[in-house]
Structures are given as C-alpha cells and as structure tokens.
Design a protein that fits this description.
Blueprint lengths: L2 H8 L1 E5 L3 H6 L6 E5 L21 E4 L1 H6 L6 E4 L2 H6 L7 E5 L3 H8 L5 H15 L2 E4 L2 H7 L22 E7 L12 H8 L4 E4 L14 H10 E5 L12 H8 L4 E3 L13 E3 L3 H13 L1 H18 L2 H21 L17
Parallel strand pairs: 1-2, 1-4, 2-3, 4-5, 5-6, 7-8, 7-9, 9-10, 10-11
Length: 348
C-alpha cells in the first residue's frame, strides 16, 4: 500500500448517521468520513440535506459497504447498541455517543421498561465490546452512569447570518412534537405562547402548515429574522438546551423557556425563564414590542454560545475522545464473544 493511501485510511472515521446536525460537526475534526445512511427507523432514508449539507470530507455509504470496506478506520462512531452490534465484525476502536437521557428514553419507550436493568445492560454491553462512551451533556451522562467523558456539541457563530429581528414573532424548531409532548413540556409551551405569534419549524407531518427548512441556508434565514427563540423541556426527561437552541443563540436570538436547571439562559440577560406561563407571555410580548431589547439580549446570547459551545472546544474534546477510545480498544482484555448479547435492542 502506498504510504499516502495508508495515512489517509488511518485517518478515516466511520460514523452512523443519527442526526445530521450532530454528525455534520465531525467534519471539523480533520478526518475523512464514511457516513452510514439508509438505516431503518428513520423518517429520511438517506442524508437529510434540509438539516445540514454533507461534510466536504465525507462520503455516504450503506452498512453493507461499511462492513465490506477495506479501509482500516481510525475510529467508529455509533449512537446505540444496535449500531455497535451492526459493526461487531469489524476490529477498530469504537465510540458510543449518548444523545438522550435514560429517563427521556424510557418516556419514549413507554411503560414496562426497568431503568436499572436498561442501565446495567448498557454498562455490561459496552464493556464486552470495548466501546468508549461519550455523553453530549452531564445531564445525560449522569442519567446513564457515564460521566467520564462529556462532550457538548459545538457551534461556530460565524456560520450564521447577522441578526435582524425584523419579524415580530417567536420561533421554535422541533421534530415529532406530537410524540414528544411530555418531554418537551408542550402543554406549558402552549399556555405560555399560545397567545403570541410563533413560527414552528420542523418535520411534523401531523401538524398542518409546519414544515422543515428547505436547507441549512434557509434555516439560517429563518433564525436571522425572528425576534426570539423558545425552548421548553421537562427537567425529568430532557436537558435545558438542545442543538437548535444553541443555533438560535449563535444566530443572536434571545431565548425564552421554563426554568430548567441546565438551561444556558440567564434570566434578564440573554433571555427570560419562568415556570409561570403568564410571566413568559409577558416577556414574549415585551420582546415583540421592544426590538432594541431583543437585539441587546440576543447579542449576549451569541456571546454565551461562543463561550460555552464553541466549535473549537468540540473539536479538541472529541478528538481527545477518539484517542481515549483507541487506547481502550488496543489495551482491553479480550472477553467472551458478545454477538448475541444485544438481543434487547438499541438501549440509548
């Protein structure tokens, strides 16, 4: 093998596509990327370019192509135990990324699931397959019992358009609202913002008039013109901010929502928080009436995103995670075969 080809292959990551906005971040790490698409259970069979473009250093492949690939992957990035099971025949280091809290996962799965059993199964399985676990927030890591490596997503504020706030309306970006009402504390959302103009954006086929952005550029334009952003979440199930919230802050929008212990919002500084829906209605109307205040608070929100969720911080942190995964993989003790262990399905 030519040395240059060997070097290129040794710096290629294999990643399952779970959520385009998160996977897109991997493009800044400096590796080549093979991204597995065509996975079952997703509303879009391939890569959903409405959320993000395919990273410039990436190619899209099927699971079958990944399993047959002669490339020696530097590391494999998975998002649930089904992904880990799918690549069990490959012999490269692997990372499991936790995107959901245990409680949030149980809420989606419905009654009948034992949280302690789910947690125990996950710990046992990742040890068997030699995976390194990365949680996208301390909130999620603590719920599963994995707090060794916390890597929050990163946002490059330079990617977003100058904030204009010209549209006197709030904005919320969310997919599958109807099936996630309790997680999103949607009843509270409706009480607080039902009487003010709010634009909903996202894949929600059961909600007439609610559509996803056409592409990332269109999403940036939507963020640019709205007056404020909304994020509500039940603290039992979901974190106080998600990637859409971070994007909104990076675009210069102040954020309104319930008083969540992990929120990035400082009340009266870069947005408003309250567990009283009538108070939030008042704050929403305040920003709708006072564009200059929205611009000032949005500027502070952008500063928060820059300081707390920078793309450079993500790059350094996840690059470190990859090296930890490699060290664990190559120094692990080989245990019994684990191919049949994950019969319980995708845990996280």
């Amino acid at each position: 093998m030519h040395p240059e080809q060997k070097s290129r292959e040794n710096r290629t990551l294999l990643a399952f596509n779970c959520h385009e906005a998160w996977v897109h971040q991997l493009g800044i790490l400096g590796y080549d990327l093979d991204i597995i698409v065509g996975l079952p259970g997703r509303y879009h069979p391939g890569w959903d370019a409405r959320m993000r473009p395919v990273p410039a250093n990436a190619r899209l492949i099927t699971l079958e192509q990944a399993l047959a690939s002669p490339t020696r992957y530097y590391c494999m990035v998975t998002h649930n135990t089904t992904d880990l099971l799918d690549v069990r025949t490959r012999s490269e280091p692997r990372i499991l990324v936790l995107h959901h809290s245990l409680e949030g996962r149980l809420e989606e799965e419905g009654p009948g699931c034992d949280p302690e059993r789910m947690k125990e199964m996950l710990h046992t399985y990742v040890e068997l397959v030699g995976a390194h676990v990365v949680a996208t927030s301390m909130f999620k890591g603590e719920s599963w019992g994995f707090t060794e490596d916390i890597v929050q997503f990163g946002i490059d504020t330079d990617d977003y358009l100058p904030y204009s706030s010209e549209k006197a309306a709030g904005l919320r970006i969310c997919n599958f609202i109807s099936s996630r009402r309790r997680i999103l504390d949607w009843d509270f959302h409706e009480k607080a913002f039902g009487g003010v103009p709010v634009t909903l954006v996202g894949h929600n086929p059961d909600m007439p008039g609610v559509e996803a952005a056409r592409d990332w550029q269109h999403l940036k334009e939507i963020l640019q013109c709205h007056r404020f952003y909304i994020h509500t979440a039940d603290p039992r199930f979901e974190a106080g901010h998600n990637m859409a919230t971070a994007e909104a802050m990076a675009a210069g929008l102040p954020v309104l929502g319930n008083a969540h212990p992990t929120s990035l919002v400082r009340h009266g500084v870069n947005g408003f928080v309250s567990n009283n829906p009538h108070e939030l209605t008042h704050y929403a109307r305040l920003l709708l009436d006072d564009r200059d205040l929205a611009i000032l608070m949005g500027r502070r929100a952008r500063k928060t995103a820059t300081e707390r969720l920078s793309a450079l911080r993500f790059k350094h942190a996840f690059t470190r995670s990859i090296e930890i995964a490699r060290r664990k993989w190559y120094t692990r003790k080989i245990g019994p075969a684990s191919a049949g262990f994950a019969a319980a399905g995708a845990v996280p």
